[in-house]
Write a structure and sequence with these properties.
- The protein is elongated.
- With 403 residues, the protein is an alpha+beta fold.
- It has two domains: 2-210, no CATH class; 212-398, Distorted Sandwich (Glucose Permease (Domain IIA)).
- Strands 1, 4, 5, 6, 7, 8, 9, 10, 11 and 12 form a ten-stranded antiparallel beta sheet that branches. A two-stranded antiparallel ribbon has the order 2-3.
- The longest helix has 76 residues, at 135-210.
- Residues 1-22 have low confidence and may be disordered.
- It has helices at 2-49, 56-118, 122-130, 135-210, 212-246, 260-271, and strands at residues 284-287, 290-293, 301-304, 307-310, 316-318, 323-331, 335-342, 345-355, 362-363, 368-372, 382-389, 392-394.
- Strand 11 (382-389) and strand 12 (392-394) form a beta hairpin.
């Protein structure tokens, strides 16, 4: 009985581990599909932008984004392969345990068959009953014979069940090995693509360094333009905060004085950190928040308080969360800008042409804000996006899902 309890405990433990592992594998598969989709979107956007003239610096940045996403895919593939290895090892141990248990059951069953054969005659059974000293002993002997027959039948059934479980585990193990091989094959393909991208990037960087001065001036020009536009955005944010606070008797132009409804909306926004949708259906990050280092010169960098997303023609900017349109402005070199307030959080969408919203309009997550226009300096379809809490800029990658 003790052995049976131990065996049942092991089966339950194996079952629990399998459930946990299955959930983790499901999560990894979802991550892999998301990264593969991201790679596909980047490839499609790059094909579309090839029709336009791209500077060598832009091409280097495109390849950097491809390399980043490919490395992310390799990491997820490795995690999935390691998880499958763990499952394969776990099932191999379960198979060994089942085989041992099956051998024990078969041995015990064979011994019972031999004993039954040795005492198989009807005469022996009758003599066994007639030799009873009284009726109660005879009844007990009948019960014993019945229990022995039942036990032998159950042993046979357990052997059949264990044999079936063993077959199923072997089939599962075979499929898991095939899954692992498929993941490893995808990983080899991703690694080859990564090497090709890095080689191509090295060739472009070498080409740029032949005329480094020209490209340094190009990057410095971009930084100068970014600084000018960001100063204008800072001014507009402070204006919007001051205008709203004036209604509530506050003179601050850097921190919102929130109403109870505003506080509730801000809390909802915070709860969705890391889960907010992209402001475009699909796009390629051509500039990230903070310091964007140059591959040409280690001392050369572009600092940005927002992000730039290159996308396809006719793309539409969409709201990342429910809120209110508090300002619409036209910025030189950046087309139209829409500022949406979410409590004391702000999402800012610029380089828009046709707008679908107006000032003081309440909007929901995913609502259309405006068509994304061509960037005046590059001629590409680009959305510039800024996220802020009051007047403090935030890194959108920490808030937007899988950015």
């Amino acid at each position: 009985m003790k052995k049976l309890k131990t065996y049942l405990f092991l089966l339950l433990a194996f079952g629990f581990c399998t459930t946990v592992v299955a959930q983790t594998q499901s999560q990894l598969e979802a991550q892999r599909r998301a990264v593969e989709k991201e790679i596909q979107q980047i490839s499609e956007i790059l094909k579309a932008t090839k029709k336009e003239e791209s500077s060598l610096v832009d091409q280097v940045n495109y390849l950097e984004e491809q390399i980043r996403v490919t490395e992310k895919l390799i990491k997820v593939n490795n995690q999935e392969a390691n998880l499958l290895t763990a499952k394969i090892n776990e099932n191999a141990k379960k198979i060994d345990a089942l085989r041992d248990e099956l051998e024990t059951l078969k041995t015990e069953y064979a011994q019972m068959i031999v004993k039954s054969y040795q005492s198989r005659s009807e005469q022996n059974r009758i003599m066994f009953l007639f030799s009873s000293e009284n009726f109660q002993q005879a009844y007990k002997r009948i019960q014993y014979m019945k229990q022995h027959a039942d036990y032998r039948q159950k042993q046979g059934e357990r052997i059949a069940e264990q044999s079936l479980a063993l077959e199923e585990l072997n089939a599962t193990l075979f499929n898991q090995k095939k899954e692992k091989e498929a993941v490893l094959a995808k990983n080899r393909q991703a690694k080859n693509q990564l090497l090709e991208n890095k080689k191509e990037q090295e060739v472009l960087i070498a080409e740029i360094r032949k005329d480094e001065k020209k490209y340094v001036q190009e990057i410095q020009g971009k930084q100068k333009e970014i600084i000018r536009i960001e100063k204008e955005i800072d001014r507009l944010i402070k204006e919007a905060i001051a205008a709203e606070n004036k209604k509530r008797g506050s003179t601050s132009s850097s921190v919102y004085k929130l109403t109870p409804a505003g506080e509730a909306l801000a809390k909802d926004f915070e709860k969705n950190k890391g889960k907010l949708p992209w402001p475009v259906e699909r796009g390629l990050l051509s500039m990230r928040f903070g310091v964007n280092k140059s591959h040409i010169n280690n001392n050369l960098k572009v600092i940005s308080n927002g992000i730039r997303i290159e996308t396809e023609d006719n793309a539409v900017a969409r709201s990342i969360f429910e809120g209110e349109v508090v300002q619409i402005s036209l910025i030189r070199g950046a087309n139209k800008m829409v500022l949406v307030r979410h409590g004391n959080y702000l999402s800012i969408y610029r380089n828009l042409t046709n707008l679908y919203v107006k000032t003081h309009q309440k909007i929901k997550t995913g609502d259309k804000i405006g068509d994304i226009g061509k960037d005046p300096s590059s001629g590409k379809t680009v959305l510039s996006f800024v996220l802020a809490k009051n007047a403090t800029k935030l890194d959108p990658a920490e808030w937007i899902m899988q950015m």
